[in-house]
UniProtKB/TrEMBL annotation:
Domain Acyl-CoA thioesterase-like N-terminal HotDog: 41-118
A Gene Ontology cellular-component term: peroxisomal matrix
Native species: Hebeloma cylindrosporum
Protein name per its UniProtKB record: Acyl-CoA thioesterase II domain-containing protein
Pfam families (UniProt xref): 4HBT_3, 4HBT_3C
Alphabetic keyword roster: Hydrolase
Signal peptide range: none
Entry keyword annotation includes Hydrolase: yes
Family listed: Belongs to the C/M/P thioester hydrolase family.
Length: 319
């Protein structure tokens, strides 16, 4: 990335986030990598998932549309060295194609994805769960406003204020706008759900494949943190409530629509059915503003509190 691209606002470079260059037959290389605040490595949604989908789609006939990606994060990655993506065609059918994508950095495999493509069958019957009842986006606060409230609250501790000030700067530069639709919503059956409005900022019109790349980027935002919240862990907490580490192990996304605009508000509904043993699993559903369920997601990740196995001496956290 050149200096001008580096200095432009992040909301103006979603295309740069997702761009890869072809360096050989079925072989691609990243052009931009991003490490989020306090993260161990490059952001999985923007790089490992979205750029892998871009690479795979470039190797497939355009009459096929990606409908599923199942990803495994093997090692953390650095923003200092480009990531290379190698695509292999595993199955070529009349209705479905399957590809594998392997991402490597410095000679080591850091990520693996299986993705499937389908010739759309829009004439087939369809069904979906209804979209939850939430306030519309214009009645919800931007996430930046919520961060500012924490910063300005007289009882916020210094460490938390410092963290949210950094998050606020990062959020303002993010290519994705986020609003909390419902926080910690509890259903009648006791299921806790988190709901966010999300959209790409100020993007031009993109064709369907590119909309899915952006949706894959969005699908990783705030996802595993739903599990840490259910477990009662947070930044600035103490003991078992102190969040010391989160890291994605695997991530899957299923696309069920080819006609949506990631530049319009999308509702991302998340829930966590189980957490324990230093792990948590989350499920998510992404709806258009009009209520169409366009994607279903699932993710498992490492979630560790600042507590140690009493039978072992203290040691650095390691996957």
């Amino acid at each position: 990335m050149n200096k001008d691209e580096l200095n432009q606002p992040e909301h103006g470079r979603i295309s740069t986030f997702l761009e890869v260059e072809q360096i050989g037959v079925n072989h691609f290389r990243s052009k931009f990598l991003w490490v989020p605040l306090r993260a161990r490595g490059v952001y999985g949604g923007s790089v490992i998932i979205s750029q892998a989908l871009v690479s795979a789609t470039n190797c497939v006939d355009p009459s096929f549309a990606v409908h599923n990606g199942q990803c495994y994060f093997l090692l953390s990655s650095s923003a200092s060295t480009p990531i290379e993506y190698s695509v292999e065609r595993l199955r070529d059918g009349k209705s479905y194609l399957t590809c594998s994508v392997t991402a490597s950095q410095k000679g080591k495999k850091i990520f693996s994805m299986l993705c499937s493509f389908q010739k759309p069958e829009i004439w087939q019957p369809n069904f979906q769960w209804p979209m939850p009842d939430v306030p519309p986006p214009d009645q919800c606060d931007d996430e930046e406003v919520r961060y500012s409230r924490v910063i300005d609250h007289p009882h916020s501790n210094a460490e938390l204020v410092k963290y949210f000030k950094q998050r606020l700067v990062e959020r303002k530069r993010s290519p994705i706008a986020i609003k909390m639709a419902k926080a910690h919503h509890v259903n009648k059956d006791g299921t806790v759900r988190y709901m966010y409005w999300m959209k790409a900022r100020d993007i031009p019109h993109y064709e369907a494949p590119y909309q899915k790349y952006i949706l894959a980027y969005i699908s990783d935002l705030h996802f595993i943190s739903s599990a840490s919240r259910i477990l009662g862990m947070k930044r600035g907490g103490k003991g078992s409530e102190a969040l010391s580490m989160t890291s994605t192990l695997d991530h899957s996304i299923w696309f069920y629509d080819n006609n949506f605009d990631a530049g319009d508000w999308l509702l991302y509904e998340m829930d966590c059915p189980r957490g324990g043993s230093g792990r948590g699993i989350v499920h998510g559903r992404i709806f258009t503003h009009c209520g169409t369920l366009i994607a279903v997601c699932s993710q498992e990740g490492v979630i560790r509190a600042n507590v140690r196995d009493p039978a072992k001496p203290e040691a650095p956290a390691k996957l």
